[in-house]
Structure formats: C-alpha cells, structure tokens
Amino acid sequence: MKRVVLCVIGLIVFVSCSRTEPSGNTGTPVTDTGTTAPTHQPSANPPWYPSLAAFEAYNSVRTRLFSEATFGGDFAGNNTVESVQAPSSYPSGYNVVYFDADNIFWYGGGDGNEASSIGSYVAKTDPATLKPIWYRQLINTQQNGEWDYPGMIGLLDDGMLYVIYGYRLSKLDPKTGQVVATVTLPSGDAAPSNTAYNGFDASAEGILVAKTIHRQAGCTVQGPDVLLKCPDSSDSTMVSVDPRTMTIVDTVTLPSHVIGRPTVSRYQGKEYVYIFAESGFIRYLITPAGKLTLDSSWAAGPLLTSGQTIGWGAVVIGDWVLSQCNALPGSAPASVYAVHQGDASKRFTIQPFANDPIPPLVKAAFRKQGPGGTQAISFVSATLSADPDTNLIYMFDALPGKITCLRLTPSGFETVWTVSQATTEFTTIIGPRDRRVIVNTAIPGAEIPALNKHDEVVWRNAATGQELARSERLPAISNGTAVQPSYSGSVLYPGLEGALYKLVPARPRPTG
Questions:
Q1: CATH no. for residue 184?
Q2: Which of 92, 121, 203, 399: disulfide with 207, CB 3.0–4.6 Å?
Q3: What is the value of pTM for the model shown?
C-alpha cells in the first residue's frame, strides 16, 4: 500500500479573545441572537440537521453509517494518502458536525489527562486551511478543578449547535460561537465537580436525552482515566431536555450502574431510550414531550458473565438492539449481544475473539488491568458500528488486536471476515451501499493500546475487509473517539495533543 504526506503546515497553538466560560443556570433561556442556519430541506434524519454529519453517530440509533461521505481512492486498493495538517491546535478533538462542506464545527478539550486539554471548547474551522474562524472555550477545568471528560457537539434541525460538557448543556450561535443559553444538569448523589454527562442523543421530536457518569469523591485524576483509576459506582441520573426552551423536562435515576451513552429508537410507533447497564439492557419510553418511563415489561436480564465488564451504548438495526461488553478491560472474552425490541427473551450472542491470542507485550501491560487486579484479555474501548442496509456489524478488541465483521441473520450471528488491526476507536462507515468502506485507526508496531504514541488510519472494503489505503504514522488520536467523515472523499483526524489532519485517499498520480 503506497503512502505519502502531501503537505504539513507548522503547528501553532493559538489563543482567542472569545474564550469565555458561561455561567450555568437552571434552564432560563437567554435571548437568541437571531442567527439562522443555511436554507435547507426538512431532515430525513430527524431531529438532526440534514448534512453529511450533524451527530457523532449520524443517527439517533447510533449506527455510525455516514452514507453521504465517500471514499476518494481506487477500490482496487492502489492508493496514496495525501495529508494536510492544521496550523492551529485543537486539543483532544472529539467530534465534528457540518452544515455543509463550507461550515465545519469541532468539539474537543474533554480529555483532561492530556496537559493541553483544559476543558471543553467549540471551534468553527476553515475547510481549506483548517484554521479557526472562531473559537469558544466553554470551561477551564484547570482553574475550577472539575472533572474534564469528553462530551460532544450536535447540530439539530433548528440550525443551532448544542454542546454537553461536565454537568452543563449549552446552545451556541453557529455564526459567532456565542453562548445563547446554558442549562445546569443534576448530578444526583455526586458533587457537580465529579459529574460528567458523556454525550447525548435525541428523539425524533428533538428532545435531548443524556446521562451521568461520576468520579470518586476526592479523586483528582482527569479525563477517561477516571474510569479505570477512581470510578464511582453510583447510579446514573438520566435527563430529558427541551432544546427550544433549554429546560429540563424529566429526571430519572437509572436502576443500575451505566457508563455508555443513551440510544433512542422508534419501534412500532413509540420511541424508546435504550441503556446498557450492569444488569443488562433496559429501556425507557419517551413521550413526544420528553417524559421518561421505565418499561418494566421489556428486560433482557443479566448479560455479563464472570470476568466481563460493562459495555458502552447500544446500537439499533431493524428489530434488534446491539452492544458488546468489556468497555473496561475484562478477564474474559468479549461478547456481542442482540436483543429483540419486540421480545427481550429473543437474543443472540457471540464471542468473536474467544480463541485469539494476546501479543506478549500487550498481555504483560494488561496483567493486572482486569477486574480485581486480574489479567485482562479483552478491552473494547468503543462500541460497535452497524450497517442496517446489509445487517453487517463491525466490532474490535484492542488486546488480541483484531477487527471483525459479523452478519446478523434470523438464526444468529455469522462471522464474515476478521483481520489483524489493533485499534481503540469507533469504526466509521462511509459510502453508498454498493461501495461501503470502513475507516479506523491502527496502532503501529509494538505500541500498546491506550498507551500508544502513534496511530495510522486504515480504509477497508466493508464487505471483504480488504485494505484499500493506509496513512503515514501520525501522532496518537484522542482515545475512544473516531476518524471523522468529511466531504470530497476526505476524513478528519483529531490528534490527542491537538494536531488536526485532513487525509485524502487518492489514486497515485502519473509520473514522467
């Protein structure tokens, strides 16, 4: 596979006078500035803005299928990868949303264990130069001591930006980055400074849904490292918020410990919020107004076995709710689960990497990372991705260093292909149905997952696993995020320490 770096512009950390920290409120809206979004047709992906990517997982069922993004290279696999690096620093970039190819908005700064990440920010970025057009620092956790954990940005069909960070949810004017309104979210039994709402989802009516995770009292660790070094097992709080008024509609205490984000799905005329808890999948009915009610008639029951750890959020395709375990290092192989939305007693499971060996250096590094200080053999740091058009599911395990493609059939899971590729990031699916491509990172050489200093980006034929393109070695990406889809065959790569790259696979240029 040929690789080339086309252009790298010197890295300059910039500071903007627009950096301010909003004061929280309990939901009183601030006067809107009157900014409107570009003219557009009603969204076919409600309530998200109709663009290539207005939400971190594209749709509320969290498939991570971005069908409007394309692969610009040769499908036979003879490709180079051209690279442009931003001249400004975007520390621990997490996700990007778009109005269109000319209007790009970044969220980042939530990986507080990285020194350059001082708290969440939003930036509008020039698509050609990757320079910031405006930059809004929402909070400075180095000054206030609050837990800095990744939230996210979303672009609703009303044309406004919504950002969740710590225990705050803010609405931003996309033209200027001005904070229009901020709502302070409840922290349950934990201190606000030890509370993070790690993302949100939304119903088709536009009601936002989010839930908490917590840091142990007295802990000063920052970023995602808290989940390993000083987690708090307090029950999570889940809220629904009306973004039009920026007020809390409902608040519930989840009946079990949860770390993954909520997933919203419509099934047989009703909308549900799915949660992967320690006790198994649970769901809440959400009304059009945002009222949340536990659906006790639907319960998958316990899913985890000895040595396995809790999983991330759920993904829904068709009638099935999917996820996998071992979001934290496990001492037992990871399982993938499918539970029927209409009958929770119908379920399938598979352990795709149960017989795969762990490389010796990786095994040594994780010798005490499993539950109770045991040897870890599995670590799935990002939830699976799924293609509802083909019933194909993409899942990895960082410790055996494998990615697999599974097919969900009426009788259960089938393995389609498996390749060796160590990663700790979400799998991004791009392209039309007949030319699907998956994009993910690859930890190079003998570097250790979650401790690696570098990554490469790999494009594969989604149907076969064939490698189509591979980038040069880059500074490590923000762990547990994703290579971001973009326009004109490109992707955006957010480095943990702030280096942002645009990568473009292309056929080699003729010589001579």
A1: 2.140.10.10
A2: 203
A3: 0.91
